[in-house]
Design brief:
Order of helices and strands: HEHEHHEHEEEEEEHEHEEEEEHEEHHEEH
CATH architecture of the largest domain: 4-Layer Sandwich
Strand content: 15-25%
Helix content: 25-40%
Structural class: alpha/beta
Shape: globular
Largest sheet: 7 strands, mixed
Number of helices: 11
Number of strands: 19
CATH superfamily of the largest domain: Metallo-dependent phosphatases
Radius of gyration: 21 Å
Length: 365
């Protein structure tokens, strides 16, 4: 097992195939690019993220050889655009970015039944879920519990998994552990050389799954909003930063029962150019929102930065949390106000200066 954290400039030089001697490449590698918990397709105010930049990474990797591009849940909701377009903008952007596989996140089930089915139908990529189905029985249309694909001469098996929750009545998510066991059994029986879980559940649940299932070679996970890499018996459990602030790139080589793995985190920032096809999609949806809501208007100002990133507000006291609870107290005349940090969805930094109506509307969705 090898773990590599590659600085972005070095990674981009490799992808750009610059002049000079090339480093030895693993024989017949299987490669994955992972993103998760992507609520907005455009670049964030802090200059990071953007599906158009992720698409550039994916395309440069694809120029070198086959790569599977996967999304580990939470993409159709919530966001300011999804409030009005119910995830259509995300599906169109991911289609343009050439996503290969996605699994359900818990927020997908905030959409009503027919809307979710419509988004799945619009997807050019495949949806996988081994444990979530329609409550009346049967799978969602065009959703498979698992799939296989041949890469570099290896039969790669993937399955999708989502944490249980109090979802809308139309959906039922069975026990993830039991569903994973059945999927792994099935993929093993059909001859998969490599078994990969595309999961949307807690870090603890993913760790337990990887520790318990020795036939599971790799977990590409979501639900947590911060990048993570755990290693159990030489097998990686990966998660990327939310809203495409980073992507995880993993290469496996060797073969069945002797896979070696190398991991690199790719920071998605201004050093990466936009893919023009994806940028056209994101720009068109942003224009549509402006036509719908009117021009962005200044409604206030702040003298200090308001850090509304999930990594801060979900872990400790924050300026935004204090501001929102103070506003709730003032508006209701209450002595005490409590707000679930998970309900604050901006996940960005409001810089000193003007504050717009778009920023305020993006806090609670």
């Amino acid at each position: 097992m090898t773990r590599r954290l590659i600085p972005l400039p070095v990674f981009l030089l490799v992808m750009a195939c610059t002049a000079g001697p090339k480093a030895p490449e693993p024989l017949n590698p299987v490669r994955f690019l992972l993103i998760n918990d992507v609520y907005v397709s455009d670049t964030l105010a802090d200059g990071r993220g953007g599906l158009a930049r992720v698409a550039t990474v994916r395309n440069r990797l694809a120029d070198q050889g086959p790569v599977l591009f996967a999304l580990a849940g939470d993409v159709l909701s919530p966001s300011l655009l999804s409030k009005y377009y119910s995830g259509r903008q995300m599906v169109e952007a991911l289609n343009a970015a050439k996503l290969d596989y996605a699994t359900f996140g818990n927020h997908e089930f905030e959409l009503d039944r027919d809307t979710l089915i419509a988004r799945i139908a619009e997807s050019k990529f495949k949806w996988l879920s081994a444990n979530c189905m329609l409550a009346e029985g049967g799978a969602f249309p065009k959703v498979q519990p698992w799939d296989t694909v041949r890469m570099s001469g290896h039969l790669v098996g993937l399955f999708g998994l989502t944490l249980e929750g109090s979802y809308r009545r139309y959906v039922r998510c069975a026990d993830p552990d039991s569903a994973a066991r059945i999927a792994i059994d099935t993929l093993t029986k059909v001859g998969a050389d490599l078994v990969v879980g595309l999961t949307h559940q807690t870090l603890e649940a993913d760790r337990d799954l990887l520790a318990r299932e020795s036939r599971l070679d790799l977990i590409l996970g979501g639900h947590e909003h911060e990048a993570h890499d755990s290693v159990i018996s030489g097998r990686h459990l990966l998660k990327a930063d939310a809203n495409s602030r980073s992507a995880q790139f993993v290469t496996l080589w060797g073969g069945k029962e002797e896979w070696r793995q190398a991991v690199a985190i790719v920071h998605i920032d201004s050093r990466l150019p936009d893919d023009t096809a994806v940028a056209r999609v994101t720009d068109a949806w942003a224009d549509s929102l402006r036509r719908r809501l009117g021009p962005e208007q200044v409604v206030g100002s702040t003298a200090i930065p308001i850090d509304a990133r999930d990594a801060l507000s979900r872990r400790q006291e924050s300026v935004l949390g204090n501001l929102m609870t103070d506003a709730a107290r003032a508006g209701t005349g209450a002595d005490v106000a409590l707000i679930n940090a998970g309900a604050m969805r901006l996940d960005d930094v409001i810089r000193p200066g003007p504050v717009s109506n778009y920023q305020l509307e993006s806090i609670f969705l």
